Amino acid sequence: MNRLNILTFPDPRLRKKAAPITNFDSGLEKKANDMLFTMYEDKGIGLAATQVDIHERLIVIDLSEDRTDPIFIVNPSFVVLDSTQETSKEGCLSIPTFQQEVPRAKEIELSYQNLRGESEKLVADGLLGYCIQHEIDHLNGKLLVDYSSSLKRGRIKDKLMKMKDGKNKN
Ligand code: GNR
Ligand code: NI
Fold first, then answer.
1. Buried-most residue among 38, 60, 150, 153 (CB within 10 A)?
2. Average pLDDT, the chain
3. CB of 135 sitting under 6 A from ligand 1
């Protein structure tokens, strides 16, 4: 398994729209496993392929305490079952140190394919529902900062660009 590099805001590659997956081959399985490894290493609960510069509609999620219950989600779409907007504070591995309150639909039904290309459905609310909506935002080039004020967005951009400068000075 390989650890992949996670792109950070304001990298323009985070704004690309990911393409549907049509080949359910061993290459897809390898990408998914590398993403899962990277997500575990960075202690995230979800990761979208866009964040590792793969512009395909692939997501990994694992909300379990012991990190043994991954869900691999290909070509996701959802319908809202309960449109009540619930707001919770979200973080993102692509925007370190930043948190943002985001309104999300309370309950959704997700349709997707597994790594073998078989169709699956699941109903999600709470943290799983928010996480799925967060990851699908990534596949569409949307980020937590888009739910924030331009002042706050400007501040986090400056901060992360300075952090990157520091890293590149070695
Ligand atoms: O690790 C993560 N935690 C999180 C918390 C609340 C809502 C969404 C998330 S996803 C995030 C990992 C990440 O950046 N995925 O894209
Ligand atoms: Ni994220």
1. 60
2. 97
3. yes
